[in-house]
Structures are given as C-alpha cells and as structure tokens.
Amino acid sequence: MFDINWRGLLLPLAYLAVLAGTFVTFSTVYRRRKALQSANLAPWFGPHLQRNIYLSLLHMEPEEGTEKAPKIPDSVIRAALLRRAVEDINRIIQIRTAKAACSSLLQRGSVGDDLWQRFQRAEKEMEDELRDVVMEANALVPGWGQIIFQSANEIAANKVLRDRLDEIEAQADKEKEWWEKRRATIQIEFMKELDTESEKSNTRPSTSSADEPVLVDGPSTPQGGPRKRKGKK
After folding, report:
1. Which residues contact residue 135 at a Cβ distance below 8 angstroms, ignoring those fewer than 6 apart?
2. Quick one: DSSP state of residue 65?
3. For residues 45 and 92, is the Cβ–Cβ distance under 8 A?
4. How far apart are CA 50 and CA 152, in angstroms?
5. Measured between alpha carbons, how far is 18 from 209 in angstroms, rounded to an integer?
6. What is the rounded distance in angstroms from the CA atom of residue 76 to the CA atom of residue 54?
7. How would you write 22-62 as a 3-class SS string?
8. Contact, 151 vs 84, CB < 8 A?
9. Alpha-carbon span 122 to 106, nearest angstrom
C-alpha cells in the first residue's frame, strides 16, 4: 500500500478549489450581467395594441357601483382576436425580412451583439404569441386555431392591396394635376409664339412693288391688221 502524503496535496487541492470557486463566481456574475443587459435592451417591436385590446375585452372589469362586468358579445371578442392575429402576421413578415439582413450584418461585424439579441428575443416572443393566439382561438371556437392565421393572412394581403391601390390613385391624381398645369403652360407659350410671329409680320416692310413683274410693251401694230412683210424684189 502506498502512503498518501495529504499534507503535500493540501496546497494543490486548495488551489484547485479556489480556481473552481472563482470560475463559478465569474460565470454566475457574467450570466446575470448578460441577462440584465438583455432585459434592458429596447424591444424590437412597439406595444402590441391589438393584443392589449383583446385582453382588455376578455378581462373587462365591472364599473363603479356594479358587481358584474358588462357582457362582451362573443363576436366582438372573436373580431378582436382576429385583429390580433393580423398584427402577428405583419410582425412575422417583418421578422422574416430582417433575419437575413441582420445575420449578414452580424457576420460582417457591421452591427453589435445587442441588435442580434434584440432580434432573437423578438423572434422568441413571436413564437410564444402565436402559440397563445392558437390556444385562445381554440378556447373560443373549437378548431378555430387551425385556420385563424390563414384568415388573418388573407386580411393582411387584402389590406396591402388596398393600400397599394390607394397609393396608385393618389399618384394618378397628382400626375393628372401636373399634366393640367403643363398643358396650360404649353398653351400659353404657344399663344405667345403666335403673337410674336404676328407682330413680326406686321412690322416687316412691304416689297410688293419691287416684286411685281413689269410688263414691257412691244412695237405697236397699226390698226387694220398685222403689218405685211415686204418681199424681196
């Protein structure tokens, strides 16, 4: 049997214990600091107004002097949840559009880790939001959670189309107004040119007497007929 010199191993073991304690402490402090920084980061999206409206309708509190809260029709609650799903569709489109750009900028070093952390947190929040909407839809109408986002996608697409048509109509009105002004300007310039040409023609000297041909009378013939030629004798 080998005798172990515990006194000789005491110093290395103490060193390892201190090193392990330092590493654990540093890791804990670092994780807490990163979590605090992540919590203090500005959110990727603004307040979710449609979700707040839906929750306010769902948990309507009784008015002062009454014991029961007012009854909200189910159709109003379903409409509020559908509007919430439409807003979620718009945010999902923004996240999918920005993900490739943020990833590319992060790889190039053009943006910091804070922006990527904000994006990841927004992506996680949207996953929880979609799951919550599906659960709420199934609670209101069984099986509605499977098709609510399909309906919301159609509503969002129709809204984009209407906004585009309104933009085209507004642009058409501006172009029509511009063309009316341009046509009036062209007409005024054309009338000015006509007036200028008319003034030039009136002030130009007359050259009709010099340009008229002059008739030269030939040798006159006696009356009574043409002159007879004398024959040679």
Report:
1. 145
2. T
3. no
4. 13
5. 126
6. 9
7. HHHHHHHHHHHHHHHHHHHCCCCCCCCHHHHHHHHHHCCCC
8. no
9. 17
Contact 85, 133 (CB under 8 A): yes
Give the model confidence (pLDDT) of 152-167 as tens digits. Answer: 999 999 998 998 888 8
Which residue shows structure tokens 């590493």? 23
Longest dimension (CA), the chain: 185
Q: Which residue, chain included where needed, has tokens 């996953």?
A: 127
212 backbone φψ class: left, alpha, beta (φ>0; ψ -120 to 50) = beta
State pLDDT tens for residues 16-52: 888 888 877 877 766 666 655 555 567 778 889 999 9
Gap between the Cα atoms of 26 and 23, Å rounded? 5
Residue type, 34: K
Distance of CA 95 to the CA centre of its chain: 14
**pTM attached to this predicted model:** 0.58
Determine the Cα–Cα distance for residues 70 and 203; give it in Å rounded to an integer. Answer: 91
Q: What is the 3-state secondary structure (H, E, C) of 86-144?
A: HHHHHHHHHHHHHHHHHHHHHHHCCCCHHHHHHHHHHHHHHHHHHHHHHHHHHHHCCCH
